[in-house]
């Protein structure tokens, strides 16, 4: 019998500021992450309005996760939320002066380091225990959550690009080191797609400073990869961030193949659609 994992819980003790460019909008943006009482809430200081980081507010999932409430939206929340979830910080008031969370270096590592330094451990906290298997499929991709005593992620990807190919990343929060094994993995894209994506309003802030670019069998970045399987690790990082929109750590086994933001949102929607699928519990 495996003992059930108790996720860590932390609270912010001082504000943290992040500045940078939005990877899709190209807009310069600053966000100040302040201590909060309950939930992670984004306040748009440029336009007014507030939106809570919750699966209930997911408005778009193409190449990013966008949350929206009424006319207020914030895009590309997944890397920030991945770091928050890994640390166990579930309350913050985030003041942001633009439409998109800054991409920084394309990973969760800068978020993780600064947030860890500005927070301290606390006792207690919520968690969501998976009671029944749930799964979703879209085309050739699938994502599932299965009962499991820990927070485990098993992510498979399959790209035609020779530089990426087929990869699998495994991570268990009970045994692994998120900061060393997951957080540094950067977002990525195809060099040949950039002009088309920019015409559609995506990737306007992307560069080799904040993303891994591939061209067939070649990794364009002069420094190369941080891990041999960095692409799969980044998809795992994204999944941690998307599942953080449950507003609590999920105790269960997450599996996906050819997954992404759309599947992750659909999975949360299906998990919470039936009360018998999950149990809310304190740590």
From TrEMBL:
Q: Where does Zn(2+) bind?
A: 79, 234, 238
Q: Recite the UniProt keywords alphabetically.
A: Hydrolase, Lipid A biosynthesis, Lipid biosynthesis, Lipid metabolism, Metal-binding, Zinc
| A single MF term (Gene Ontology) | metal ion binding
- E.C. number(s) listed in UniProt: 3.5.1.108
Under which pathway is this protein filed?
A: Glycolipid biosynthesis; lipid IV(A) biosynthesis; lipid IV(A) from (3R)-3-hydroxytetradecanoyl-[acyl-carrier-protein] and UDP-N-acetyl-alpha-D-glucosamine: step 2/6
Give the residues annotated as active site.
261
Co-factor requirement:
Zn(2+)
- Coiled coil regions in record: none
Q: Name one GO biological process term.
A: lipid A biosynthetic process
User: Can you state which reaction this protein catalyses?
Assistant: a UDP-3-O-[(3R)-3-hydroxyacyl]-N-acetyl-alpha-D-glucosamine + H2O = a UDP-3-O-[(3R)-3-hydroxyacyl]-alpha-D-glucosamine + acetate
The first-level EC class reads: hydrolase
Say which domain of life the source belongs to. Answer: Bacteria
* Gene Ontology CC terms: membrane
Q: List the Pfam families.
A: LpxC
Indicate whether Lipid metabolism appears among the record's keywords: yes
Say what the protein does.
Catalyzes the hydrolysis of UDP-3-O-myristoyl-N-acetylglucosamine to form UDP-3-O-myristoylglucosamine and acetate, the committed step in lipid A biosynthesis.
Family, similarity comment: Belongs to the LpxC family.
Q: What is this protein called?
A: UDP-3-O-acyl-N-acetylglucosamine deacetylase
Origin organism of this chain? Acuticoccus sediminis
